[in-house]
Write a structure and sequence with these properties.
With 282 residues, this protein is an alpha/beta fold. The strands form 2 sheets. The protein has a 6-stranded mixed beta sheet with strand order 1-2-3-4-6-9, with helices on both faces. Helix 5 crosses helix 6 (170-179) and helix 9 runs antiparallel to helix 10 (235-249). A hairpin with a 2-residue loop joins strand 1 and strand 2. It has helices at 31-45, 68-79, 100-110, 126-133, 160-168, 170-179, 185-191, 201-213, 217-229, 235-249, 253-264; strands at 7-12, 15-20, 52-57, 115-119, 122-124, 136-139, 144-146, 183-184, 196-197. 37% of the residues are buried.
Length: 282
């Protein structure tokens, strides 16, 4: 029998659970896990049956960041006069093309459905940045979140310098980044780094996912896109996008079914997310 896959996927009623599965390494990120995440998330971008994604980790941690063996490999290559990252095929510029971790976070943010991170144990470095790419973060009070790249002479490269300040402010974000300070799940909730604290993040994520699935998939899709859009446009431009979405959504099959079900006090029977709604971007 072969080794267990580094990423487990389960699907129930439109809820997709992705579980980082390197528990002996606290789900630390290596090249195989990066590749598996990119592949799985890219496939879900066009999955019309997906309604919510839950991201969690097997064993004692969410994700402890980049695997230490990878750092040792980088150091060995540097000692040999090579840069670990660069343009493949160009002598002396490194063996890897940069940006794999960034693609994980970017794909999470582009996902047309909500992504919920269920965080327990360590969410460090790349693990914390993956959580930042999710829409909703649920954590235990004793979870440990940090960006520790400074310990290795690095800065975050998976969106941490851009996403963390948007959540907790530039001063607090810079303090965490340049010191590598670890914050508990409880403190992270007070800072706004996690959405809320709960005893069992995975169970709460499943409950929340079931609540989301009971809503119109088009309304959920549009709401996520509009909230993401607020990162990069003026309030006026965002309100224009709201109006554009509303004018196409009202009267659509799923909106009409949601309204009828509400008025008739029954469960709604939605069809797949519409592919005809306006592209309002992120």
């Amino acid at each position: 029998m072969g080794e267990d896959p580094v990423l487990l996927t389960a699907r129930v009623d439109g809820i997709i659970e992705l579980t980082l599965n390197r528990p002996a390494r606290l789900n630390a990120l290596d090249e195989e896990l990066f590749d598996s995440l990119v592949s799985a998330l890219t496939a879900l971008l066009d999955d019309q049956d997906a309604r919510v994604i839950i991201l969690t980790g097997a064993g004692r941690a969410f994700c402890a960041g980049l695997d230490l063996e990878t750092f040792r490999t980088f150091a060995a290559e540097a000692d040999a006069g090579e840069r670990p990252f660069g343009s493949p095929g160009e002598v002396g510029t490194g063996k890897r093309e940069p940006g794999r971790g960034r693609r994980v976070v970017q794909t999470l943010r582009k996902m047309p459905v909500p992504v919920i991170a269920a965080i327990h144990g360590a969410a460090i470095g790349g693990g914390c940045q993956i959580a930042l790419g999710c829409d909703i973060r649920l954590a235990t009070a004793d979870a440990k979140l940090a960006l520790r790249e400074a310990d290795y002479g690095m800065s975050p490269d998976m969106g941490g310098t851009q996403l963390l300040p948007r959540l907790i402010g530039s001063d607090r974000a810079l303090e965490m980044i340049v010191t590598g300070r670890i914050v508990s799940g409880a403190e992270a909730a007070t800072l706004g780094l996690v959405t809320r604290v709960c005893d069992d993040p995975l169970s709460e994520a499943r409950r929340l996912a079931a609540e989301i699935v009971a809503r119109s998939p088009d309304a959920v899709d549009g709401s996520k896109r509009l909230v993401r859009l607020s990162d990069s446009v003026t309030v006026e431009a965002g309100m224009d996008a709201e109006l554009q979405f509303m004018s196409r959504n009202i009267g659509s099959a799923n909106q009409s079914e949601a309204a009828r079900a509400r008025l008739e006090q029954r469960s709604a029977a939605f069809v797949a997310r519409s592919t005809e709604l306006p592209d309002i971007g992120f």
